[in-house]
From TrEMBL:
Organism field: Aquisalinus luteolus
Similarity section: Belongs to the universal ribosomal protein uL4 family.
Keywords from the UniProt entry: Ribonucleoprotein, Ribosomal protein, RNA-binding, rRNA-binding
Gene designation: rplD
GO biological process terms held by the UniProt record: translation
Official protein name in the record: Large ribosomal subunit protein uL4
Stretch list, region Disordered: 49-77
Any one GO molecular function term: rRNA binding
Gene3D superfamilies, alphabetized: 3.40.1370.10
Function: Forms part of the polypeptide exit tunnel.
Tagged with keyword Cell cycle: no
Matching InterPro entries: Ribosomal_uL4 (IPR002136), Ribosomal_uL4-like (IPR013005), Ribosomal_uL4_dom_sf (IPR023574)
CC terms in the record's Gene Ontology section: ribonucleoprotein complex; ribosome
């Protein structure tokens, strides 16, 4: 399927043929949900920790007589019911990562690209290069394309473009190898350069043919 290509100035620059097996699928929410859950779980540090009963300082001596006190028969000040005692069933250091087959991850990326194309939220530009790293100039350029919340993907990130775009709120810039489902879906627009389209198709075509 053919899609128009524009320049950063929003002028026509020809067209590009998109692979139906990558950009023309019917998006499946279950696959996208599985991949986003996998990504967010993997990025959790899991370093939250509290001291449990065996880790706090406190006497283990029986501090109250067995009978006649009118209270419970405690034998340890480190019990969770006391101030300064250990925490019961608190968080421990652990990994939150879950498994997701590589084939499913690639399938989810194809469905994310298809979802953007199907929702008319995909823009193809000829290249993403700037002569100077000027944020103000880039913001006016984005205004011509109607971009306020976008992910821009290129095969090789131009250094001037990267420096100018990093100060623009709501805009992310990633190389083809870093394109992922979560970042694609969290932005309202997906902007791909022609070389990025070729790179993504080369990255995903092998799996699409299986």
């Amino acid at each position: 399927m053919k899609v128009d290509v524009v320049t950063l100035a929003n002028e026509k620059a020809g067209s590009v043929e998109l692979d139906e097996a990558i950009f023309g699928l019917e998006p499946r929410k279950d696959i996208l949900h599985r991949c986003v859950t996998w990504q967010l779980a993997k990025r959790q540090q899991g370093t939250h920790k509290v001291k449990e009963r065996g880790e706090v300082a406190g006497t283990t001596k029986k501090f109250v007589r067995q009978k006649g006190s009118g209270g419970a028969r405690h034998g340890n000040r480190k019990a969770p019911i006391f101030v300064g005692g250990g925490v019961a069933h608190g968080p421990r250091v652990r990994s939150h990562a879950i498994d997701l087959p590589k084939k499913v991850r690639k399938l989810a990326l194809r469905h994310a690209l298809s979802a953007k194309h199907g929702a008319s939220e995909l823009i193809i530009i000829d290249d993403a290069k700037l002569e100077e790293a000027k944020t103000k100039a880039l913001v006016s350029t984005f205004a011509k394309l109607g971009l306020t919340d976008a992910l821009i993907v290129d095969s090789e990130i131009d250094e001037n473009f990267r420096k100018a775009a990093r100060n623009v709120p709501g805009v992310d810039v990633l190389p083809v190898i870093g394109a992922n489902v979560y970042d694609i879906l969290r932005r309202s627009k997906l902007v791909l350069t022609k070389s990025a389209v070729e790179g993504l198709e080369a990255r995903l075509k092998g799996e699409a043919q299986k």
